[in-house]
Amino acid sequence: MNTVLSRANSLFAFSLSVMAALTFGCFITTAFKDRSVPVDIHVSKVMLKNVDDFTGPRERSDLGFLTFDISADLQPIFDWNVKQLFLYLSAEYTTKSNALNQVVLWDKIVLRGEQTKLYLKDMKSKYFFFDDGNGLRANKNITLTLSWNVVPNAGILPLVIGSGHESLTFPDTYETTKSY
Amino acid sequence: MQSIFSSIPTHMDYKGQKLAEQIFQGIILVSAVIGFIYGLIIEQFGWTVYIVLGGFAISCLLTLPPWPVYRRNPLAWQPVLAESQGEAREKPQENPKKPRKHK
Question: Best of A22, A78, A84 to disrupt the B interface by mutation (most B CBs within 10 Å)?
């Protein structure tokens, strides 16, 4: 029986299948693209404190403060399958208690159509750089890396690590808290 | 209420149905190809979707109502038989059973 409704149904189903195929095509045209760009990170100021960490056992932990510059051109990452980028700056280091520590210091969302040239000066970290002990003091190899998640229209959610690292060292002594 | 809806003509003949199906499939496939290429060039997948939706609207307009082009080949029915012959018409059901398999 061929009625208006059955014609509308087959038309709608066919359009939906075609749309799904197009979405898959959108995914497949961008699936094998390299979404890594060079990133320039520069740390201008490092400060180390030893403060009460109220979240853990009642001991004093190391708290680092960084001031950093980031510059990167994110334009090559964007194409028709990118809705937004989630950038985050993470610090990786080794302590006696843990072979690998990763702390996210700062993040930023770059939407499609926004300014894609990052040129950030004297940024302070958004999140506390707390160690879970005293591993920051005199740590000679803290690596800062900018990574990003590419949020697509269709397909997988790639995690890309930007090429370009910055290593920094923490001082041997704590900054003493001034009492006012 | 029901009679109003059923009085709207919606019928297509068989060739018209086939033609309508070919037309909407053609329109949507062509709009999909155009939209994909256009979206790939301007790097906006949204435009691909809009173009396919446009093709969908056009093919709705063209193939949902029973335009005269879909009613050109009406079925040629047999003329109504006379009343007296009507009862002797019953055909024996031809349903040849498959021969049973013997082992």
Answer: A22
Q: At a CB cut-off of 8 Å and minimum separation 6, what does B50 contact?
A: B35
Distance (Å, whole) CA B43 – CA A40: 27
Quick: pLDDT tens for A86-131.
999 999 999 988 899 999 999 999 999 888 898 999 999 999 998 8
Q: Does A29 touch chain B (CB under 8 A)?
A: yes
ipTM of this complex prediction, to 2 decimal places = 0.77
**pTM of the full structure:** 0.75
Interface test with B, best of A4, A9, A11, A79 (most B CBs within 10 A): A11
Considering the four listed CATH numbers 2.60.40, 2.60.120, 3.60.21, 2.160.20, the one that applies to the domain covering A33-168 is: 2.60.40
What is the C-alpha R_g of chain A?
A: 23
